[in-house]
Structure formats: structure tokens, C-alpha cells
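job 3f2a | input accepted
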Amino acid sequence: MQRPHALLLDFDGLLADYDHRIHLRRLADAADCTPEHVDAALRTDGLEFAHARGELDGEQLLQALNQRLGSTLVAPHWHAARLAATKLRNDCTAVLERVHADVQVAVLTNNGLLTRPVIEQLLPGRRVLCSAALGARKPDPKAYLAACAALGCAPERSLFVDHLFRNVQGAREAGLPADTAFHAQSLRRLLKRHHLLR
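job 3f2a | predicted structure (198 res):
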């Protein structure tokens, strides 16, 4: 088995735990409304998914939210809410510190660009590839091919790891070796099997 040249990892559910209720509550506090109102506004016309697909940039998403809520939300409100709702799995990120230095390590996430600075803050020095920038969301095979192109690495030499099997299936359809991991132990075992740990 040839050692991969790149390692692509899921964020929420593998490297971090995310509580959407906290995110909604913090946004609601900033917008002076209820979490239910924020949730409904994000779901109206599929705003949040449109942002994750890159059809709406951060300013457009916030503008649409503000119109629906009568609020004045700005990017720092979103960042603070997302940060409060996210808890990094330090045992999993510690595993990544043992990956060979010549292997590109990047996050591949179905998040919009408003969330990217938060992930970059939590994982300093790591490349963060968002579905919004790639033009496709996991498990669409196009998302993985776009991520490999961004890294300049062939799909067959790019290992993808996610906690959801449907996303793993999409990566395999795109020609990437891929597997599931759910915690530090399974991530360590998988990376060791692919000779990625020093």
C-alpha cells in the first residue's frame, strides 16, 4: 500500500463536536429574538444550505437573515456563536500531530465561508476547504475531486476520513481511498494502517 500524499478530514463529528442549538441560541441573543425564529429564518428558502453550497456568500446570508429577523447581525456575531457551539476534540487533533510532515493535511467540510475562520482559529495552520468554495457538498463526488485539485494531489493518493459512511461512499466514487472514524482510537488505527503516522 502506497502512503497517501494528502489527508482530508471531516470536521464536525470527527475533529470537533458541534451543538446547533447553542449556535442558534447565541445568534438569537445577538438578534434579540428566539432560537426558533433564527432556525426558521435559516431554513426559509434553504438559506443555510445555499450558503453551504456557495450560492450565498456570508454578507448575503446575513443580509437575508437580518431582513427576516429585523436584526443587525454581522459576521463577528456568527463567528462567536459558531465558536461557542463547537468543542474541539483535542485527542483527535493530537493524532494529526503525528502525521508525516510531507503529507498535506486539510479539512473538508460542508460549511459556508462564514464558518471557515472559526475552523481556522481552532485548527491553526491547517488548510480548511469548505463546500461553499468548492461548489459542491459531500457526498457529491465533485466535492472530493475539487478538494484534491485544490491540494494539487491525485485522488488515488488522497485519503479521506469522515464519521458518516455516506460521505465515505461519495469519496470512494470519486476515486479516493476513504474510511470512517469516530474517535481518536479509530482515527489513529486508520492512519497507522495507511502508514501516515511517524
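job 3f2a | Strands lie at 6-9, 16-18, 86-88, 104-109, 127-130, 158-162, 178-180.
job 3f2a | closed
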